[in-house]
Design a protein that fits this description.
Order of helices and strands: EEEHHEEHEHHEEEHHHHHEHEHHE
Strand content: 15-25%
Helix content: 40-55%
Distance between the termini: 16 Å
Number of strands: 12
Number of helices: 13
Shape: globular
Largest sheet: 7 strands, mixed
Structural class: alpha/beta
Radius of gyration: 19 Å
Length: 356
């Protein structure tokens, strides 16, 4: 499908479990340059039942996972069909869906995103591209992060692109190669402790800002082995469950103090990456871009960096946007995953195309 214009629906569900992000996008390709226009967008929030199922799924048996995959595919197809109908979207070329990550163990050659089934395309009646990570892991890569090629093609005005979602990840050019990796957990932990206070998230970081620093916890977090590893490297929810939460839970202190300490830890780890790079403009997207306390801490720790927070659509739907682009690149038979980012044996065009 080689042309200049593509009418696309990008669909993303992140590890922070905020819900399913849907973005209707028009992509244009002219004179070797990609541009985009984000039209209708929506986040469909998961019910409490689905949030709990997706959190618990990391411990499911194979049979239980297969059942979850079937049921999640139905849920996803209903969400997509409702979005298309509500916004009266016509003539879509393709739906590009990430699915939802349940297991991510690239060191074991394994990753699982549910909702990436043929039934999705059949149910919505539109060609669908999905399951973007599996091939990369099979090729020796981390299967993550996948967004950097979109950063290169769509956001080249910025020196660095930082996503603050369930995890923080960064992408930038280094000697002509795109480099990207996960830095640390963010909202997977912050939302967990906001939940302890009966909140879906810490709005603007206001609760964290009122908390106290727990120095011993802060030092222990910063001493974790992951931060000493060289990239490519990536994180999954298993890491949060098996390493981070047990570490933080050891400290018998109020949730406000845990939020405060972990937020400063995040800013510290981001600054540790940025401060060894040349000064430049840092594009910040993801839900964490609304966390004023976190952004203020980052700016304090990175005085030579210009932090740019874009418009709401880009903040909230950048990943859905870029998975839309990954799907289009797959349809064109072009590279959509960079080995310099994931560590795979070579650049490749990943994803599965399901016809109707």
């Amino acid at each position: 499908m080689i042309r200049e214009n593509y009418n696309v629906l990008g669909v993303m569900s992140g590890t922070s479990l905020d819900g399913v992000d849907l973005a209707h996008i028009i992509f244009n390709y002219q004179n070797g340059i990609w541009s985009c226009n984000i039209l209708e967008c929506q986040t469909v929030v998961y019910s409490d039942v689905w949030v709990n199922r997706l959190k618990e799924a990391v411990g499911y048996t194979k049979e239980k996972l297969e059942k979850l995959n079937d049921e999640y595919t139905l849920l996803l197809s209903d969400i997509i069909k409702t979005f298309i109908e509500d916004f009266a979207i016509k003539d879509l070329d393709v739906v590009c869906s990430h699915g939802h990550t349940i297991l991510h163990q690239p060191q074991n050659g394994f990753t699982l995103q549910i909702g990436n089934k043929q039934e999705l395309a059949k149910s919505i009646g539109i060609t669908t591209v999905c399951d973007f990570r599996l091939q990369d892991v099979q090729m020796g890569g981390q299967g993550a992060p996948l967004v950097p090629i979109g950063d290169r093609l769509l956001f080249s005005d910025y020196s660095y692109c930082l996503n603050l979602g369930g995890f923080s990840n960064i992408s930038f050019e280094d000697n002509g190669e795109r480099v990207a990796f996960d830095i640390c957990a963010v909202n997977t932990v912050l939302n967990y402790y906001a939940g302890k206070l009966g909140l879906p998230y810490d709005d603007g970081g206001k609760v964290a800002a009122k908390g106290k620093m727990i120095a011993e916890m802060y030092d222990e977090l910063n001493g974790l082995e992951f931060y000493k590893k060289s990239y490519p490297k990536s994180l999954g929810f298993e890491y949060v469950k098996e390493v981070l939460l047990p570490l933080v839970e050891k400290y018998d202190v109020p949730a406000e103090d845990k939020l405060h300490t972990f937020t400063i830890h995040v800013a510290t780890q981001v600054a540790a990456v940025i401060n060894v790079l040349p000064p430049g403009k840092l594009l910040v997207t993801g839900g964490g871009a609304y966390n004023i306390f976190l952004l203020n801490c980052m700016q304090e720790f990175m005085p030579d960096t210009t932090i740019v927070v874009p418009d709401d659509k880009t903040i909230q739907y950048k990943e859905a946007l870029i998975f839309g682009l990954l799907g289009v690149l797959k349809l064109r038979g072009e590279v959509n995953i960079l080995s310099s980012v994931t560590g795979a044996v070579g650049d490749h065009s990943s994803g599965i195309v399901f016809g109707v």
